[in-house]
Amino acid sequence: MKVATWNVNGIRARAAQVRELIARERPDILCLQELKAGPAQVPEELTALDEYWGFWHGARAYSGVALLVRRDQRPELPGFGHPSFDAETRIVTVDLAGDLPPVTVGSVYVPNGGKDFPAKLAFLQAMARYAAEAHAAGRRLILVGDLNVTRTDADVHEKERDPRAIGQRPEERALLDAILAAGLVDLGRALDPDNDRLFTWWAPWRSHRQKNIGWRLDYVLASEGLVRGASRCVVLADHGTSDHAPVVATLGDAA
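Below the sequence we write its predicted structure tokens.
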């Protein structure tokens, strides 16, 4: 199963680049974040894709997430939805019927926390509970997207490190660790443990992207059984004009 995720920072500005990503990678599942558009505002070239089922979960000019699932892999409309802790259209999930044990994939856009840090912590706490409950029920998870947290200092360029900065604070990192402790693996770090330049977001000034002075904010988190067969999790730093890069992973199908 190939899963791609991208914070597009505005779907209307990046529609053609999403199509280019699909052509380049042909993912089985594509997760998008920060749509900044309601479903009716999404360009038709994306809502009318013949090869994908789509679920667009957004509000006008703010947040928003989407999931696209290949029809040749899932010929019947899969079960889309969103958990009860969803706030501000920030998470959408799909249940992949027919997989045993069952698999749920989630496209997640965690609040930045700059305007309401407690709300960000509450969202992360709810994610940890959600992951723990899913695994207790025998369900496998793939949670991907912009989590707006750097896991460790290795996920921030040394010029950008500041323990007081939102995205690097100890309490939010502890909650990301709690999500992982609920039965998930950080695939990017598992496959590339020593890479201290594995960034997915760059501030849009002073040529930070060209110099790779960035932060790792976008993740593929998957249940351990799926990770055992994984072969790839890469950052496509050359793709698109969003301030985030897509992340593409190839997972296995171990029990």
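Residues 188 and 233 are 5 Å apart (CA to CA).
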